[in-house]
Amino acid sequence: MLTEKEKMETLSRLVIQLNRVSDLDILMEHILSQARRFVNADAGSIYIAEDKILKFTYTQNDTLQKRLSKGEKLIYSTFSLPINEQSIAGYVASTGKPLNIAHVYEIEATAPYNFSKEFDEASRYATRSALTIPLTSASGSLLGILQIINAQDDDKNVISFSEKDEKMMLQFASIAAVALERAQMMRTIILRMIRMAELRDPKETGAHVNRVGGFAVEIYEKWATLRNLPQKEIDLNRDLLRMAAMLHDVGKVAISDLILKKPGRFNSDEYETMKQHTVLGAQLFLGRQSDFDDAASQVALTHHEKWDGSGYPGHIDLVSGLPLSGHTDSAGRPRGKKGSEIPLFGRIVALADVYDALSSARIYKEAWSESDVLTTLENGAGSQFDPELVDIFFSIIDIIRSIQNRYADAA
């Protein structure tokens, strides 16, 4: 447990730490982890406000996590709550006032809000103390709700959140809200770019790129964990990859509608033109300003390369788009990158993108059954896909399914 001095010192560093995180999903994980650490809480959740509802977006629970095998992750169903005074989170969202409840099962009958026991009963968890704080922007608009559960003493006994805890969390929430608003703005900008691409190509939807980004991060995290990479490095790369993966097909905005929206199969010339979206997308990130530019360029350029070297665009000079000397085939075309020549992020997004494309219904096709999709991925291991990444994908299939449900296509 942190001392009061350590809490104040950590709080002063928090602005810098949170502002280093750009992706919204990754940021919420950091916010919740830090909040729980501040007050030694066993569990917690973040709800994001959208219109007149709260979306249950991110959660952590140490007690439930300990019941899982090493490397497994908790999987939660997503749901929404109306912003009204009937639930604890809804009450805080409606009134803008924090709630510090010593025992959620002993809420007075006169209170407008109540605690739902459904989660506890389903998971065999015992919620007791709860501290619920609004996350508001500088202008006063509601961004979401931070809820932390079951404060603990040094011996892991559940206790109430103190008045000091509440004051500390209010300070924490004001810092977290600034970072949250910035990350939401970044996500909005990315999704607007995707909507621009969607006007050209109906396959590029916001739900699709969110799923691909989510899949990619989970695959990378498992890959990195197997190699015992430092957590700091893993966190940085997850943040970069999540956003870069969302922009994997942004180069399609430069492809002619005559090709992009053609209902039938491409002829050879049209296919060659279509393949240029990888180069055009990568070129958007020339003139490097940050590590994100490197990651986004790498993903855009290489997510159609194949493990056996039969993919595209292959070994090219990114500025000119011409083949690199010494890396051409007998016809003078760029040789495809093969195996580990393909950057890790490109190999990961290639797998995530194909899985989602096959699993999703589009105007021109029905969604494939999961068994058919998984068989295709399995058969593609060692030819189209990095075989190790395919193994990792299958080992986290439950997490993949939960991401699909979270970012389902609009009805």
Fold and architecture overview:
The chain is α+β, with helices and mostly antiparallel strands. The chain has two domains: 4-184, 2-Layer Sandwich (Beta-Lactamase); 201-406, Hypothetical protein af1432 (Orthogonal Bundle). 49% of the residues lie in helices and 11% in strands. The protein contains 16 helices and seven strands. It has helices at 4-19, 24-39, 62-65, 88-95, 118-123, 163-200, 206-226, 231-246, 257-260, 268-275, 277-283, 291-302, 344-359, 370-380, 387-395, 397-406, and strands spanning 41-50, 53-61, 80-82, 99-101, 130-136, 142-152, 158-159. Strands 1, 2, 3, 4, 5, 6 and 7 form a seven-stranded antiparallel sheet that branches. The two termini are 46 Å apart.
Query: What is the overall pLDDT average?
Result: 91
CATH level-two architecture of the largest domain: Orthogonal Bundle
Q: At the fourth CATH level, what is the homologous superfamily of the largest domain? A: Hypothetical protein af1432
How far apart lie the N and C ends?
A: 46 Å
Count of alpha/pi helices: 16
| Poorly predicted residue ranges | none
| CATH C-level class of the largest domain | Mainly Alpha
Morphology call: elongated
CATH topology group of the largest domain: Hypothetical protein af1432
Q: Could you estimate the helical fraction of the residues in percent?
A: 40-55%
Rg from Cα? 23 Å
Structural class: alpha+beta
**What's the order of the H and E elements?**
HHEEHEHEHEEEHHHHHHHHHHH
Biggest β-sheet: count, sense, barrel? 7 strands, antiparallel
Number of strands: 7
